[in-house]
Amino acid sequence: METISQGFSRAVNLIFSGDRELFEIILLSLRVSGAALLLAALIGLPAGALFALKRLPLRSLVINLMNTFMGLPPVVVGLVLYLILSRSGPLGILSLLYTPSAMIIAQTVLATPIVFSLSLAAIVAVDPVIRQAARTLGATPFQEALTLIREARYGITAGIIAGFGRVSAEVGAVLMVGGNIAHYTRVMTTTIALETDKGEFDLAMALGIILLTLSLLVNFGLRAMQRQGQVEARFRQWD
Questions:
Q1: Which residues are within 8 A (CB) of 167 and not within 5 positions of it... i.e. 6 or more apart?
Q2: Residue with the larger pLDDT of the pair 3 and 155
Q3: Count of domains in the chain?
Q4: Are 85 and 177 in contact (CB under 8 A)?
Q5: Please, is 47 exposed, middle or buried when counting C-beta atoms within 10 Å of its C-beta (0-12, 13-18, 19+)?
Q6: What are the DSSP calls for 50-97, one per residue?
Q7: How many Cβ atoms are within 10 Å of 191's Cβ, its own excluded?
């Protein structure tokens, strides 16, 4: 117990000392996860809205596949992307393997199904009366879609937050395609795994504290969005 308390104390000191390596790893993690989340939102939100509002061919199949991919094992994503991006793979000419770009691609693949499925569910759950009212007032299909997306904004935001939670804590896929190269592709999760294997717990515990703090903030944000959506739904019922 004393060793754990001492390690925790040193980890806290490492955070507040402004350790350069620590913050380099944190910034790279946030940059990779942020870029992946942005791409996932740009892909998943419009696609989710489209499948929520239109009866497209193979709609049920696509929705079922995306729901399944929400629980896709990261190591499977890492394996597939490794084969695609490796020198002998179809995209090997791009030399993306063991780069931050490969890590962004991996995290985008993991986050997109979450953003897609939760955005679709949020839009489908909007009261049909709102859609009918928009049509009655002469809204164009595009204006109608924007109205429904605006009504579903809390559910959509919750989906994006959940996507961030998924990618920020991911280790398997980014380790396989990023290589965990010091000062280049080493992020928080892969560093924690490496430092623990080495028996060097100060940096691992410091990053664990940061990662846990981020997870808590993500969960608080998700709960706040859900509560806000519930409050607005009650107000609409009273009206």
A1: 33, 36, 37, 40, 107, 110, 111
A2: 155
A3: 1
A4: yes
A5: middle
A6: HHHHS--TTHHHHHHHHHHHTT--HHHHHHHHHHHHSTTSTTGGG--T
A7: 24
Task: Return phi, psi of residue 171, to 5°.
Answer: -130, -40
* Contact (CB, 8 A) for 188 and 207: yes
The CATH number that applies at residue 57 is 1.10.3720.10
Q: How far apart are CA 108 and CA 188, in angstroms?
A: 17
Distance between CA atoms of 124 and 142, rounded to whole angstroms? 16
Mean pLDDT of the chain: 86
- With both helix axes pointing from N to C terminus, report the angle between 201-238 and 153-168 in degrees, rounded to the nearest 10: 170
Range of the domain at 178: 2-238
pTM score, whole prediction: 0.87
Token pair for 78: 């890492």
Q: Which two tokens stand for residue 160?
A: 């994006």
Per-residue pLDDT at 133: 84
